[in-house]
Amino acid sequence: EALRCGGQCGRSITGASAGYLFAFSPLVWQYHCTSEVFALNNLLVALLVHRALLYARLRKIKDLRIASLLTGLALSNQHTAVLFVVPLGARALSIASSTLKKRPREVIVLGLYGLTGLSPYAYLPLSKPKQGGWGQIRSVRGFVHHFLRRDYGTLRLYSGRVGSGESLMERIQAWYTSIATVQGPLPYALPVLAVIGACLLLYVPPPLPEYCDDASSQGGGKRSAKARRRARVQEYNQQRRAEKGTKKSIRVAARGCRESLALLLGALSFYLLAFHALSNLPLSDPLLYGIHARFWMQPHLALCCFAGLGLEGLVRICGRKSVPLVVVLIALQIRVGLEPSGLSPGAPGGLYSRSLGLHTAHPAHFFGDYARALLKPLPQNALLLINYDQQWTSIRYVQQCEHFRTDITTINLAMTTYGWWHSKRELYDNVVFPGTHYSRDPQKSSGYSIGQFFDANYERRTGGIFLGGTLSFPDTEYKQRYEFVPYGLVSVLSRKERPPSLEAYVLESRQAWATALNEMRRLPLDENHNSEETWEWTIQREFFTHIADRAAYVLESVLRDDVHDATYLYEAAMWFETLYRYDRNMTTANVKNMGLAHVHLVRSTKGKAPPPTVPDILGASGLLHDEQQPFEKLHPQATTADWKTWSSSRFQVGWGDFLGRPEAIKDPQYETIRDLYAKVTTASRTMGTTRS
C-alpha cells in the first residue's frame, strides 16, 4: 500500500515477506502463542496503519471514518496504541483539513465512529461485578480512574517508586540491539533492509509511459489524404498528452511515497521516543526487561513494513535473480522464530516440522499445570491469598474456565491495597474484612493490617489460609501470633502457640508435594526456550524455592527438639542435595543449610546404623531435570550402611562451597562455620595421612 501511494505496484512476494518478518520474529511469535493482549493489539494497529496509507493515497473520507473506528477499538484493547494513533491521526487530519473545513459535520461523524470503537468500555459499568474484577467502575470518578490506569500510573508500566536507572538513549539502544541481533533472519538484516526500504520511498522510478497504437501505426487498407492528416494530428496530440501525464505521474509518485514515508517513519519515531521516555521499568532485572521488551512489537510492525519495502528494492535492483535470496531470508526468519533460541512456547507439528526445527518447540501447558499444582493439594474450602501475577492469572483461568477447585476462595492481595477495594468486599461473603482495604499504616486510614485480617478469619476458615507469593507490605506485627509454614508450592498460616508436630507436618507436606508434582507434566527448564526474561522461568524458580523452604523448615524443626531425629535430618539433607544437584541458582543460605543438615546428621547416631527410610518424592517425579536420576543413583553410598561417611564428605562439600562464595562473609555465623570446617578438614587430612 505504501508503494501504491506513489503509483507503484509492489510484488506479492515482498509483501508476504514483510508479514513473515513480523510474524516469525522471536518476540512476536512468543506472545502470539499465549493468551495476551498483544496479538489483538498488533492486529488493530496493523489495520489502522493500512487504513492511514489508504487515505493518504485515495483521500476518501470512508477510509478516515474506518480509521477513527479502529482507533477506538485499539485504545479499548491496549493504551499503547495511542503512540501510533497520535502521529497517524495528526497527519491524516492535516491532509483532511480542507475537507473538514468545507464539511464541518464530518468532524462529528468521525467522533461518533471513534466513540463506537470505544464502546467496549460501556460494558464495564453495565456488567455484573465479579470476584477478581479490577477497580470501582460504576461511578464516574472510578470509571475515569480505571480508564486512565491511575493505579499503575497513566502511561506507565511500573508502579514502583524506584527509578529505572537507564536513560532514554540507553533504552533505545536496547531496542536497536534486539532488532539488529535477535529479531531478524540474520544479524543486522532488519536495519539494513529497513534503510533500503526508506530509500525506495524517497526515490521511486517513474512508471513507464504507455502509448496506445492508433490508425497511423496500423497497416492495411488505403486511406484518403484527409484521413492520413487526421491520424498524424491524433498521434501528435497523444504524444503531448503522454509527456504531460508522465511528468504529472512522477510528481504524484514522489508526493505519495513521501507521504508513506512520513506516516511510517513518524509512527515509528514517535513510539520509540515517547514509549522509552515514559517507560519506567528497570531493565537490569531480566524479568522486567522481558516485560519491557513485549512493547517493542508495535514499532516492530512499522519496521517490518520498511524491511518489506527493502526486499522490494532488492528485487527491483537485481531482478528475478534476487527471488531465491528473498525465499532464503523468509526461511531463515521462520527458523529464527521457531527454533529454541526463539523462545517459542508452542509450535505446530507436521511434515516439515523437523526440518524447520518445529519439533524442538515446547508445548504451552506450563501455566495450566502450574495452576493445578497450586490448587490441587489445598484442603476443601481453603482461602488462598495471591500476590504473584503468574499465579493469579493462571489460577483464575482454571477456576473460571475449567471449573477446577472452585471451592477455594482466591483473593489478589495487590487488589486489596487500593482504596476502591471496599466496593468488592460484598462479593466475598465468607471472608471478613476488618476495614476498607489492606493498608500499610491502618492507623492513618480506614484500612486494616494483615494481622487484623488474620485475626478476623483464622478461626472461621476451616480449610485454612494459604499464601502464594509474598505479602504486599513488610508488616511484622502479625509475626507475634502467626507464622507461615511451607506447604507444597504455597505456605499455610499457623498459630505460633500451636505449631504442627514435626511428624504430622512431614507426612502432610509429603502428600502435598506428591500431589503438586503429579499435576506437572514437565518444568520449563530449557534456558533457550524459557530464559529469565520469560514468565515461564518463574515457574521453575518457584519450584526450587519451595523445595528449599520445605527442607529448611524440616531442618529447623528437628533442631528445635532435644532429640535430633536422624530420619528427618536425612530427609532434609536429601532435599537439599537434590536441590544442590539441579538448581543452578541455589542460594548461599541454602548451601549453608545443606552443610548444617549433614553436620547434625553425622552427630545424630553413634556407630554404624542402617540408613533412614525416606521416600524419594523429588527423584520419583523426574521433573527437576530432563535427565534427573533417583537419589539412590546420585548418591549410592547414602543408601548403604556407610551413609555417615557419605554425609561427612558432603558436609565438607557444602560448607566448602559456602565459604568460597563472596556473600558468605556477611553471614553472622561465617566465622564459626569457617573454624569448624577448618578443624574437620584438618582432622580428615591427618587421619588420611595416618592410615597411609
Walk me through this protein's architecture:
This protein starts with 11 loop residues before the first helix and ends with a helix. The chain has a five-stranded mixed sheet, with helices on both faces. Helices cover 57% and strands 3% of the residues. The protein has 692 residues and is mainly alpha-helical. Strand 1 (383-386), helix 18 and strand 2 form a beta-alpha-beta unit. The radius of gyration is 34 Å and the shape is elongated.
In spatial order, strands of the major sheet run 2-1-3-5-4
> What is the number of beta strands?
5
**From the alpha-carbon coordinates, what is the Rg to the nearest angstrom?**
34 Å
Measured between the Cα atoms of the first and last residue, the distance is: 86 Å
The amount of beta strand, in percent, is under 5%
What portion of residues is helical?
A: 55-70%
The largest pleated sheet is described as: 5 strands, mixed
Oligomer: single chain
Summed up, the helix count is: 28
Can you give the mean pLDDT? 83
Structural class label: mainly alpha
* Uncertain residue ranges: 206-220, 242-246, 340-362
Choose one word for the global shape: elongated
Features:
single chain; 692 residues; mainly alpha; five-stranded mixed beta sheet; 28 helices; 5 strands
